[in-house]
Amino acid sequence: MYLMKDITRDGNPVLRKRAAKVSFPLSDEDQKLAKDMMKYLEVSQDPELCEKYKLRAGVGLAAPQVGVSKQMAAVLVPAPDEDKKPLFKDVIINPVIVSESVQYGALTEGEGCLSVDKDIPGYIPRHDRITLRYQDVNGETHKVRLKHYPAIVCQHEIDHLHGVLFYDHINKDQPFEAPADTVMIS
């Protein structure tokens, strides 16, 4: 399992590179990468384990964030009700957004990132709804429609695979300005 010391921090060039496509079947190394990234998210979302291992809670972790420039990210968006299954949970490999809404969505609290240690305030307008095509760890292709928070999380992780960090999207002059019809998600 990864710890915070394993997370690549802002300033490392790997975070600004376009990641390489992943080939199938996955190598043992890539299978371990996928498993370890998801394990980090699972453990980080358990308050006791998060504190025990001194982790920062996360809902997504892309391979470049652990120093591996490959198109792979683990995503675990929990349901608002703890007893329900997650809103989205999978390791997305070679992801492509095949369609997106005209309407934007943004988190009222702004976004954070395990690779960025400082708080960078501002809205990050992203497409409120997307259709995502990706492969899972078995090489099976999935096409899913996501909206609101899960869509935002997946776009954030896909940005990592393209060398983009969340704060690149913040309007430098008006950080808390979003397009007029933006869905604000709390």
Automatic annotation (TrEMBL):
Presence of keyword Hydrolase: yes
Keywords tagged on the record: Hydrolase, Iron, Metal-binding, Protein biosynthesis
Gene3D superfamilies: Peptide deformylase
Chain residues that bind Fe cation: 113, 156, 160
EC number: 3.5.1.88
Keyword Iron included in the entry's annotation: yes
InterPro entries with a match to the protein in the record: Peptide_deformylase (IPR023635), Peptide_deformylase_sf (IPR036821)
Catalysed reactions, semicolon-separated: N-terminal N-formyl-L-methionyl-[peptide] + H2O = N-terminal L-methionyl-[peptide] + formate
GO MF terms, alphabetically ordered: metal ion binding; peptide deformylase activity
Class of this enzyme: hydrolase
Signal peptide coordinates: none
Matching Pfam families: Pep_deformylase
Residue positions of the active site: 157
Purpose of the protein: Removes the formyl group from the N-terminal Met of newly synthesized proteins. Requires at least a dipeptide for an efficient rate of reaction. N-terminal L-methionine is a prerequisite for activity but the enzyme has broad specificity at other positions.
Protein name: Peptide deformylase
Annotated organism of origin: Limosilactobacillus reuteri (Lactobacillus reuteri)
